[in-house]
Amino acid sequence: MKGHACVILLMCLSCVCATALREKSAKDELLLEYLREYLTELKRGDEPEAVPAQRGTEELTRDYPPPKQMDLQTLQELDADDESLVKYKPALLGSTADFLDEGGQNVLLKAMVFAPVDHEETVLNLTGDISQLKHKPIVVKEGTEYRIKLKFRVQRQIVSGLRFFYVVSRKGIRVDNADYMVGSYGPKTEEHIFQTPVDELPAGMMNRALYIVKCKFSDDDKNIYLEWEWSYSVKKDWE
Question: What are the CA-CA distances from residue 26 to residues 19, 31, 33 (Å)?
Fold first, then answer.
């Protein structure tokens, strides 16, 4: 009788241990998958295009708390005893010694590109004297379809929730604005490239005029990396 009871007890203990191991395995797998998705989002790099967060209204304000800031070194040292994560993170984050540091802010906006669909692109250098850009309008054909591209670098730490906001004015009157979510990025020596969806310039005689565009590049922590103005002149044809 006692022997039979011991067998039953051992069977029960085996079931409990097996259940605990399965739960631990499931938990570890869930943690691994979560971290993979989190790191992939931070390291997603160049995106082909983004959808405007909102258009035709004021700049969006964040109604949620920004994620806790975590430097690259801390991320690399997390879960150091987990072999799967230790092997996975270097492929996404690289080494802290691998990235070029040019000094200055963590995020460096290098250039803005006005990119018509069927015409040559115009590159505006944002690393020099940007005060004169609005005084040198880009001549564009009415009704042209185009994108705006931004070329930038993240130097040292992961940046969360980059945004590109602009306001278009004609003779001092606002005629358009948009707020784009650029995303979260990790450090990288190469430039990241963000581009907006295709947009279309106004057409018709009444819309042939000079337009001033005020731009801002910022993040979820309200760090403003650059504000600049540029202009374009809508004509009947390219000049």
Answer: 10, 9, 10
For every residue of 101-135, DSSP letters joined together read --SS-SEEEEEEEEEETTS--EEEE-SS--TTGGG
Express each pLDDT in 148-157 by its tens digit: 999 999 998 8
Q: Per-residue pLDDT tens for 92-123?
A: 555 555 677 888 899 999 999 999 999 999 99
| Predicted model pTM | 0.69
81 token code pair: 């005893």
d(CA 197, CA 50): 6
Residue 67 one-letter amino acid: P
Exposed/middle/buried for 231, CB within 10 Å: 0-12, 13-18, 19+?
middle
Residue 35's φ and ψ, nearest 5 degrees, are: -65, -35
Question: From residue 211, how far is each of 3, 65, 231 by CA, in Å?
Answer: 92, 36, 6
The size of the chain, in residues, is 239
b/e per residue, 56-79, with b = 16+ CB within 10 A?
A: eeeeeeeeeeeeeeeebeebbeee
Determine the Cα–Cα distance for residues 58 and 167; give it in Å rounded to an integer: 9
